[in-house]
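Hi team,

Filling in the usual template for the complex we talked about on Friday. All components are listed, including any nucleic acid strands or ligand strings, so the model treats them as one assembly.

SUBMITTER: L.P.
PURPOSE: interface mapping
COMPONENTS: four
RESIDUES: 580
SEQUENCES:
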Amino acid sequence: MSEKSKPARRETYRHFNSIQTRWGDNDVYGHVNNVIYYAFFDTAVNHHLIERGVLDIANSSVIGLVVETRCTFFSSMGFPDTVHVGLRVVHLGNSSVRYEIALFRNDADEASAVGEFVHVYVERATNRPVTIPGPVREVLQSLTA
Amino acid sequence: MSEKSKPARRETYRHFNSIQTRWGDNDVYGHVNNVIYYAFFDTAVNHHLIERGVLDIANSSVIGLVVETRCTFFSSMGFPDTVHVGLRVVHLGNSSVRYEIALFRNDADEASAVGEFVHVYVERATNRPVTIPGPVREVLQSLTA
Amino acid sequence: MSEKSKPARRETYRHFNSIQTRWGDNDVYGHVNNVIYYAFFDTAVNHHLIERGVLDIANSSVIGLVVETRCTFFSSMGFPDTVHVGLRVVHLGNSSVRYEIALFRNDADEASAVGEFVHVYVERATNRPVTIPGPVREVLQSLTA
Amino acid sequence: MSEKSKPARRETYRHFNSIQTRWGDNDVYGHVNNVIYYAFFDTAVNHHLIERGVLDIANSSVIGLVVETRCTFFSSMGFPDTVHVGLRVVHLGNSSVRYEIALFRNDADEASAVGEFVHVYVERATNRPVTIPGPVREVLQSLTA
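RESULT (copied from the run log):
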């Protein structure tokens, strides 16, 4: 976990997804609540898969189920900020993929948070793990560089 | 309520705020949950006030409290969509302001939803209604045209 | 709207659903954010329908779509509070039902908020309005008293 | 992480907080979204601190900031379910505390998810880490058994 003990920099990531914060993301302490960071993870990963054409929410018969997530928080974000979500794949297995995700606040070069997000691919009807389908694997492979 | 019985068009609004939908905005029926529409209202109104320099979340001694909201839903939105939030002021009183807000999905000209959002300005320390401060009123006035 | 211009009392309602507030329900002003009130509406209505056996989220071929909601806010709630959601039907049409919903904070007799929530029943596959199915109508009828 | 590789059992925990799921907790796949699990963590920890009298959201001059969270997901939960959140302290340092949290669905003896949640205590005005105040430490100590 050494790489997560200090903030990542933007140059580490090649794919970014930008998300505006919302009024309700701020909690009573005046900063984006820690829970919301995971909404950014979820959104960035699935947005990438949809954009690349390998996830159709309504119809895909094989989908990714989240089996593990984690996040280390370095500095706060707030509303209104734009969060730039850096995404890369750090492990690509037979049926699972582990993403590393970093959140950058506005123009900051240092991440406000870095986390991981693990999907296991399953057959939607049965929830049984399956080999990651070829087209999905290609997209994930392109995130490993 | 006649103006809310059919979808508004973009030309009705001069100020827009754009918000990306998130994975979790979709509910189990596969569309953005009705509750989230109000998060878009909240976000667009406050974003405008902050951007125009008349709301400082941490320090403003006079703030707007929400006393009434409503929404009529015409068509669904989903993830990933960009929601363009049209904003105008339809009533500006001594201490309260009524916004009309319309949500446009991606490039749609017809609103997916139209609603209202009423702020009463109060002294933050006591929650007592106050006359809307001059600088705020100027910003609100500019949204009435 | 006269009945919504002042807080309702508990005796007005016969059916209640209790919901705990969550940390993140509080917004930066230290009270439950207005958006969350609608999450309570959604939750109470659907919980009642599921509990009474007339909504099966995964399988019902006829479902209620939300076409209009509104809320008037009288006083604040916070975390940690228990919200008691009073529910009654104020109009039952051929394909639509209008609920009145009141939110009571902990032991308060006066509502913190009162709102309305309108479902139109549609065929899930086509989104076309249908006559409210008999078993659903029975449940709704029992909420009109 | 060996203890997180399989679901915990109820007997592991002495303190529980119960939370009802909400309609909007379900995502498009029909189960409680992974993000919401962290809302349960946040809610259970802070609820316990408030209930025991060592956190006053509005006034405490020393507060816990979340610096790390993680969760392993074993099985799904849905709406409407009641989630029983088991809580214990697995590490109590000078200024930080690490909670282990397990989520039990309704009457299940095996956890649907197990995670960790780390608070660093800071002076609210400056965000500087401080020694955990005595009364807080006593409460945390009682969760280590």
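MY TAKE: The radius of gyration of chain D is 15 Å. Chain D has a mean pLDDT of 95.

Thanks, L.
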